[in-house]
Amino acid sequence: MGNTVDADQPPIASRLARGQTADMDKSELRPIVRARRAAVPPAVRASRDAAILDHLGALVTARMVVCAFVPDDDEAGGPEMLARVADCGARILLPVSPAVGPLGWSQYAGPADLQSGRFGIPVPSAPPGGPETIAEADLVLVPAVAVDRRGNRLGRGGGYYDRSLSLARPDARLLALVDSENVLDAVPTEDHDRPVDGVITEDGLLDFGTWHSAE
Ligand SMILES: Nc1nc2c(c(=O)[nH]1)N(C=O)[C@@H](CNc1ccc(C(=O)N[C@@H](CCC(=O)O)C(=O)O)cc1)CN2
Ligand SMILES: Nc1ncnc2c1ncn2[C@@H]1O[C@H](COP(=O)(O)OP(=O)(O)OP(=O)(O)O)[C@@H](O)[C@H]1O
């Protein structure tokens, strides 16, 4: 029941602190982790984002097609993320959310070309390619609220990436971006979740060893 307090369960915040998060509902965990990120002072956030972008920049090459996203204030990576990936010379695809189902993808053509899309998320002006466009990607940067040490990810709750990542090539590298404090021991999973191959935090790349390039 929504408002019933279960005497056997410690409060959510202390379960989070103790890593007892595997059996929590995603909808229970999501707002707590998001509030924690929102409480980080802007200057600290900016320095974490700068470190994350340095680690990301070291991985991206001009030959890559990168599925990226436009981070908002709540999300690791920060406002310079697309510029950094573009500076590496990669071709960038951005997600376009339909009402339901997998994401469409449009090519990024610079900040001036972005317009407000569903949920107020910026999208390129060109009409998106279909969900299968994600198969062009060598690297998929996946937004996440939290990730666990097996690569399970907690997103914003639209189920968009869950439905989209199954269409990525098997040799595409899937990397989430989160602050290190949001790498948890466990996040709740469902059968349809495709784990990421690694996570970039301000401390560097945490690689789960699951990615195998086609070369
Ligand atoms: N920057 C960014 N772009 C992205 C995503 C993302 O997570 N980050 N997406 C990743 O999929 C897609 C958009 N997904 C979204 C999913 C849910 C909500 C949303 O408004 N959720 C409600 C809470 C829903 C719930 O808790 O049940 C909210 O935030 O109030 C917004 C966008 C595509 N683009
Ligand atoms: N492939 C799928 N097939 C059917 N239902 C799905 C699929 N993926 C997700 N869902 C459903 O969509 C809803 C949201 O999923 P979930 O909470 O995992 O989203 P999320 O991964 O946090 O969000 P996002 O991927 O948008 O960042 C859930 O009810 C989930 O069961």
TrEMBL record:
The segment annotated Disordered runs over: 1-25
SUPFAM superfamilies referenced in this protein's UniProt entry, alphabetically: NagB/RpiA/CoA transferase-like
Question: Could you cite one Gene Ontology molecular function of this protein?
Answer: 5-formyltetrahydrofolate cyclo-ligase activity
Recorded catalytic activity of this chain's protein: (6S)-5-formyl-5,6,7,8-tetrahydrofolate + ATP = (6R)-5,10-methenyltetrahydrofolate + ADP + phosphate
Which domain of life does the UniProt lineage start with? Answer: Bacteria
The record's annotation in Pfam families points to: 5-FTHF_cyc-lig
Is Transferase set as a keyword in this record?
no
- This protein's UniProt keywords: ATP-binding, Ligase, Magnesium, Metal-binding, Nucleotide-binding
What cofactor does this one take?
Mg(2+)
EC number annotated for this UniProt entry: 6.3.3.2
Q: Which family does it belong to?
A: Belongs to the 5-formyltetrahydrofolate cyclo-ligase family.
Concerning NCBIfam families, the annotation shows: MTHFS_bact
| PANTHER family tied to this protein | 5-FORMYLTETRAHYDROFOLATE CYCLO-LIGASE (PTHR23407:SF1), ATPASE INHIBITOR/5-FORMYLTETRAHYDROFOLATE CYCLO-LIGASE (PTHR23407)
Spell out the protein name for this chain.
5-formyltetrahydrofolate cyclo-ligase
Q: Which organism is it from?
A: Dietzia aerolata
